[in-house]
Every structure is written in structure tokens, then in C-alpha cells.
Amino acid sequence: MATRIEVTGLTAYYGKFKAVSDVNLTIEPKNVTAFIGPSGCGKSTVLRTLNRMHEVLPGARVEGRVLLDGEDLYGAGMDPVNVRRTVGMVFQRPNPFPTMSIYENVIAGLKLNGIRKKALLDERVEESLRGANLWDEVKDRLNRPGAGLSGGQQQRLCIARAIAVEPQVLLMDEPCSALDPISTLAIEDLINKLKSSFTIVIVTHNMQQASRVSDATAFFSLEKTGDPGRLVEFDKTSKIFTNPSEKRTEDYVSGRFG
Amino acid sequence: MTTEPDSSAQSAEQRGAASATVPPTDGPDGDPTRGSTTGGPAPEPAALAPPPAAPAGKATIGKADVAFKNLTRAAGLGLLALIVAIALFLVLRATHALGQNDGNFLTTQEWFPNQDPPKFGVAALLFGTIVTAAIAMVIAVPVAVGIALFITVYAPRRLASPLGYIVDLLAAVPSVVYGLWGLLVLAPHMKGIQLWLSDYFGWIPLFRADSVGRSFFVAGVVLAIMILPIVAALSREVFLQVPTAHREAALALGATRWEMIRTAVLPYGKPGVISASMLGLGRAMGETIAVALVLPASFKISWNWLEPAGNTIAANVANGWGEANDIGRGALIASGLVLFIVTMIVNIIARAIVARRRDFSGSSA
Ligand SMILES: Nc1ncnc2c1ncn2[C@@H]1O[C@H](COP(=O)(O)OP(=O)(O)OP(=O)(O)O)[C@@H](O)[C@H]1O
Ligand SMILES: [Mg+2]
Predict the structure, then answer these.
(1) Could you tell me the residue ranges of all domains in chain B?
(2) Reported ipTM
(3) Which among B248, B252, B190 has a CA at the least distance from the CA of B215?
(4) How many CA atoms lie within 13 A of B325 on its CB side?
(5) Pocket of ligand 1, candidates A39, A45, A204, A222: which has the most ligand atoms within 8 Å of its Cβ, to mutate?
(6) What whole-number distance in Å separates Cα of residue A55 and Cα of residue A47?
(7) What distance in Å separates the CA atoms of residue B173 and residue B2, rounded to the nearest whole number?
(8) Are the CB atoms for A51 and A84 separated by under 8 Å?
(9) CA–CA separation, B237 vs B241, rounded Å?
(10) How far A244 CA sits from the closest chain B CA (Å)?
(11) Is the pLDDT of residue B11 over 90?
């Protein structure tokens, strides 16, 4: 169920602007990989290239290769729709569909896959909500609007929605930045639990969070504004935070820069 | 006129509901473009709370406040009184004519208010109004929503903004211009389509026709052309407001563009599209000249919508006002009030549809 991602020579553009240049890294299956780095260095951009969401923006394009278990996501004949069903995503701000109930939100992706049987849907809803540690809080109001939940609950609902389609990889772009410390901890617990079934990539600005939840960490940076962001160092999280090989990484994780 | 898309899109956002139409109460000259200004915002200024007592040192400000309050109150009450007076006048004229009526106003299909004794009824007119407006909606709303979706979702960006601009411009052209175009350019070519419909769908009673011509169908098509630009422009505005976050949420789940539209765009835009449609419906039902020129003004409830027959309330006012006597005008006013009531009922139903899932409206997020 989980998948290795190999990124080679990845360069991403917004129109003429080169946002990140020549990224190479390998994300291990059933691991949590954290992307850290100063604002604007291209963490979100790289993340969005991993499920072909980058090209959704007008003018945005990608060079290089992203191999998912050896298969090139950007190869000819690869349908981005299928890629996104395999590689799920959770966004920075919780974005449940406002017109749908909690139940409908969770099954939104399943319905796209053509699953209609009520019994199966019920089962998946409970499974996904339990998986997202939300079931006990919402089991009595599954037919209430998803937008009526608290921010933290909404974010967990979005995680439930993403894992309901059983992707192999889960991408999370600052999933806790809109949340209070308690909800943040709930999500971190959840990530620890989810990594037994998914390959997880998480973008975060929170060093403690990166060191708490991740197995490997990628540090991105950029020389000066206008330059493309680059991958500075990629290694085991314990190494990045205690004994990085790059001076810039050390400055950043110790708070002396950025 | 140019501000219209904005304000209604906003109302769709805030109130969710179809605030849409002040129906053209076809008053004395039955002019549809003027109708909508008469029923403007009435009593709000009068409901203004009295300002808090001014502290002693600020006497001048207090005075200005009082003066302003009195001014707005007078304006508000004046407007209210004017509206009540107009309504009273119309109702009196109508009831006077209805009192003389020899037939049942609601069920009679004839219209002879100028003879002695007068005999007239709104049944055939109301039927024609509803049928033509319904045909117009069935044609115009899907096409308008399609245009709006194409511009907001499918069209490449370089095409999308000029197209949106053009639609907005088209929506600002008075609808009677489209009506005349439909009448002069399109209607003459409708014969073929109507024959085709009656040949292939004649087994449906509505499409059965012994002869085709100036029918409900043609009137409906002309009305559809008239309301298409405004409904498309407002729908585009509504779809533009769908947050990127929701579209991306759908895409990230593996939705195709069409699935994204169904999951994120349409549900979010539904209240707004309904209110845009109500605006179009109000225009279609209140349209006078174009329909008066198409339909043969026969007072008959016809279920064969391709055959030349029928009339509508608004068209009948335009046709009949000139030669009507006192009773005749009263009768026309009475029919106008019926149109007003129907428009109101349709609006209430639309609001109810939107309100049913108010909790789920997009505005809460
Ligand atoms: N939609 C866009 N259009 C044009 N440029 C963009 C767009 N999104 C991002 N960029 C640019 O690409 C670069 C990388 O942005 P990105 O969002 O990936 O940074 P980030 O590392 O995620 O920053 P943050 O930590 O603030 O989220 C920035 O210079 C940014 O201005
Ligand atoms: Mg970012």
C-alpha cells in the first residue's frame, strides 16, 4: 500500500518565473518526510508537483522526473486524475465542501470513483473518520454541515476525506498552521498512526513538529528573493536537527536564520 | 444596469436567496424597463433608530443629526405613502372593473372588457405567460449556465477575461433589443425547427401541430434569447466566487474538470444561479412588445405549443391599452396584478428552495 517516491532534476515554473530548481530526493515508503525552509523557498511548490496539482495553476509547468514506484508521474499517457487518486493531499487551510454534510464530505472522493453502495460507503465513512480520530466527535451528527465543525475538526475531516479513497501517499501542506496547540497535537498523533499505512510528506514551519513527527527532513532555501529555491540538505531527521552537514541548515534549525 | 451583476451576486452570497425581481407591475404605459424602478426600497429610512441624546457640548452635531433624521424619515414615509397610494389606485381601478365583469375573472378565457356587459378572464393569458416563460427558462438557463461554466472553468485564461467582459456588456443591452433580433432574424427561420419537432416528437401532445407558426414555442425562444445574457453574466459572477480552495479540494481527490464542477462549483453556485434565473424569469414574464409581436393574440388555452395561438398578460396589456375604455383599463390592471402575484409566488418558492439547505450554503465557510 505504500510507495517510494524518487524525484530527479525537478524544476518548477510559474509562467516565466523559476520557483524551484533541480530538486533530487527519495521519499521512503511508510515514512514521514518533512519539508522545512524559509517562506517562499518552494516547499509547497515541490509538494504540489508530487500529485500534479502544480500544473492546475495557469502557466505553471514542471521539468524533471517524479517516479512513483518506478513509474514516471509526468510520463506520456499518465493521467493526472489517476495520479491524484493515488497521491492524496491535505491543504493548509481546512477546506471541507461547504455545501456537503460531514458524511458527504468523506465520501466525496469515493463517489468520484463510482462507489455507490450504501453499506460500503457507511463502512468507509466510519473507517476513515476513525482513522482521522474524528469519529467519536461527529458520529451523532454525520448529516450536519462539515463547515460547522471547529477548525481542527475540519482539518481532520479533510484528512478523513483524503484517506477515504485509500491513496498510497498523503501530502500535507502545513496542515496545522491554522490550528491551536491541542488540535495540532491531535493531528501529529494522527500522522504517527497514519504512517503505518501511508507514505506521508508534510510541509511545516514548526521545527519541533518536524523533529517530532518525521523520519526524514528536507531543508529548502533560496539565496535571495527572485532566485529559485533549492534543496540544501536531505537526511534523517535526527541528523538534520543534531548534526547537519551544511552550515545553512544548522543556522536555520537552530533559529539563527530565516 | 452595469452594477447589476455585482449587487445580485453579492445578495446571492449574503442572503443565499433569490431576492431577484421587483416584478414589472405593468402600470399605465406597460413599459417593462420602467416597471422595476417603481417598487424600490421603501420604509428602511423610517425605521432608523433615534440617535442617542447628544452631549451638551456638541449641540451643533446634535442639531445636524436631528435634521438628518427628520429628512430621512420624511423621505421614507413619503415614499411609503406614494407606494401605498399607487397600489390603492391600481386595486381600486381593478376592483371596479372586476365588479362589472360578467364572467369569472380567473377561469374565463375570453377578453371582451369593452362590450356591454363586459366579459373577461385571465385564464388563457396566465396560461400563455407561464408556458412562454417556462419554455424560455428551459432553454435559457442551461445554456447560460453552460456559457458561464465554459468561461470560468474551461476557457484558457487569455480567452476567459475578454469573454467575461463581452457577456457583461451583452447583459447591459436592453433585452428588447434581443427580442427584436429574435423576432426579425430568428423567428422567420423557426418554421423548419418547428416542423422538425412536430415530425419527430409529434407523438408528444405538446409538439403535435396541424400547422406551425407564431406559437408559444417561438415566443419562448425569443424570450430565451432576451434573458440569456443577464442569466449568463450573473452565473459567471457566481461561479467566479467559488473559492480556489474548494476547486482544488475536488481536483486533489482525483476529480476530472467536469467532476470538479459537479462537486464544488455547482453546489456552491446554486443559490446564485437560482437567483439569476429568477431575475430572468421575471423579465420573461413581464416582457410585452416582443411577445405581443410574436403571438397572434388569441385567447385560448392551447396545449399544442407549436401551433399559432396564445397570448400573455404583458403582451395583452401592450396590445389592448390603447383602445381600452375605463372598464377595459381596469381589467388590464387586474391582469397586471395577477402577474405580480404569480411572480411573487415564484420568488417565494425559489427562496424556499434555497433556504432548505441554508446551513449548507457556501457563505458560512
Ligand atoms: N500561484 C503562483 N504564481 C506565481 N508565483 C507563485 C505562485 N505560488 C507561489 N509562487 C512563487 O513561487 C515561490 C515558491 O512558493 P511556495 O509557495 O512554494 O513557497 P513555500 O516554501 O511554500 O512558502 P511558505 O512557507 O510561505 O508557504 C515563491 O517565490 C512564490 O512567490
Ligand atoms: Mg507554502
Answers:
(1) 8-91, 111-356
(2) 0.91
(3) B190
(4) 11
(5) A45
(6) 12
(7) 10
(8) yes
(9) 7
(10) 34
(11) no
Most B CBs within 10 A among A47, A57, A95, hence the mutation to make, goes to: A95
- Residues 6+ away with beta carbon under 8 Å from B235: B144, B145, B147, B148, B269, B272, B273, B276
What is the grid cell recorded at A94? 481546512
Cα–Cα distance between B343 and A30 in angstroms, integer?
Answer: 61
The answer, for A51 touching chain B at a CB cutoff of 8 Å, is yes
Residue at B138: amino acid letter: V
- Cβ distance B359 to A148 less than 8 Å, yes or no, reads yes
- Whose alpha carbon is nearest atom 2 of ligand 1? A14
Look at residue B29 in the predicted model and tell me its pLDDT: 42
Q: Please name the residues between 209 and 248 in chain B that touch chain A, using a CB distance below 8 Å.
A: 243, 245-246, 248
Adjacent-strand bridge partners of A36: A219
Give B111-356's CATH code, choosing from 1.10.3720.10, 3.20.20.450, 2.60.120.200, 3.30.700.20: 1.10.3720.10
Give the one of B245, B246, B252 whose C-beta lies nearest to A51's C-beta: B252
Average pLDDT over residues A69-90: 91
| Residue B252 CB neighbour total at 10 angstroms | 28
Cell triple for A120: 460500503
Which among A53, A88, A91 has CB closest to B245? A91
pLDDT digits (tens, 9 = 90+) for A101-116: 999 999 999 998 888 8
Q: How far apart are CA B97 and CA B81, in angstroms?
A: 24
Sign of CA dihedral B190, B193, B195, B201: negative
Handedness of CA A45, A47, A48, A52 (dihedral sign): positive
Chain centre distance of CA B246: 31
Q: A45 in ligand 1 pocket by Cβ < 6 Å?
A: yes
Work out the pLDDT band at B57, boundaries 50, 70, 90: low
Looking at chain A, list the stretches that DSSP marks H as alpha helix, in order from N- to C-terminal side. Answer: 43-49, 80-86, 102-112, 118-131, 135-138, 151-164, 181-194, 207-213, 237-242, 247-253
**Closest residue in chain B to residue A48, using alpha carbons only:** B252
Helix, strand, coil fractions of chain A, as percent rounded to 5: 40, 25, 35
CA of A48, closest atom in ligand 1: 18
* Residue A17, SS3 per DSSP: strand
Which residues have C-beta within 8 Å of that of residue A52, sequence separation ≥ 6?
A73, A74, A80, A83, A84
Chain B residues whose CB is inside 8 A of the A109 CB are 253-254
Cβ–Cβ under 8 Å, residues B278 and B23: no
Stated pTM of the model: 0.80
Residue type, A21: S
pLDDT of residue B251: 95
Judge contact between A162 and A89, C-beta under 8 A: yes
